[in-house]
Amino acid sequence: MTAIVPQAIEFPTAFTRARAGDHDAFAELIEQHEAMVYSLAWNFFGDRARAEEIAQDVFLQLYRHLDDLDSEAHVLFWLRQVTTRRCIDQTRRSRFKVVSLDDAGDVPSKDHAADPLLDRRLKALVEQLPEVQRAVVTLRYQEDLDPSEICRIVGMPVNTVKSHLHRALQSLRRKLENLR
Amino acid sequence: MSLEHDLKHALRRESPPTGFASRVLRRIEREGLPSHAGRGVRQGRRRWLRAAAASLTLTALLGGWAAHGIHERRQAEGERAREQVLLALRIAGEKVRYAQHEVRDISR
Description:
The complex is a heterodimer. Chain A is mainly α. In chain A, 68% of the residues lie in helices and 0% in strands. Chain B is mainly α. Classes of the chains: A mainly alpha, B mainly alpha. Chains A and B meet through α2, α3, α5, α6 and α8 of A and α1, α2 and α3 of B.
């Protein structure tokens, strides 16, 4: 008796179609990653207009570099790396902070916070951290990445990342205590 | 709740305002970035030109190397021929000297 085993049909991914010049597929690729890229910048600067501008710039850069990337996983890694480095570079270049938490409630969140005030306080405290600590904390808690993954994105040894994370958490704890 | 848990909640992902992808695509058009399909063709053409240039260089190198070999072989053959002519002249000279010597002996 012969059994008919259905063969898995592989459809081209949005990434492969976008690389072939399909604009709709590139839009699909943006939609897959826009929340990640936008939130990295939003959590870094706390400024929605700036986050939108950075996110747009990152996707334009992605469009220019699509041919240099070879898989969906590579795209995800590249986007995290480029967004994080762009945020750090912008902070270093401008050396001024724009904190506009007033608009924090403008876009409704899908998952309502148990304590919205604590969320706003924490975000404000994260935005006051030095840029590398801010990047490490955002990648750790927004993207749920381990220090071994973060170190590849920020281009630092894993122990340096761990120490930045440790110092950032200590500083946040101390400041939170002072606020209470 | 722990600080880490609170951070995960505070820093959770949020979507950008509606229409973000369209705004990016509009910027791509406005800034006149070439489409990837076109770029693929141009890159293919560039790759082909690079391959052609490499094969031309290789052909020129091999040709030069072969010409140099032929030149060296001809030079060696010339050298051998010159040595043979010199040897023949030396032999002929010795024979002439011997004949003169014989003639002198007979005439005495």
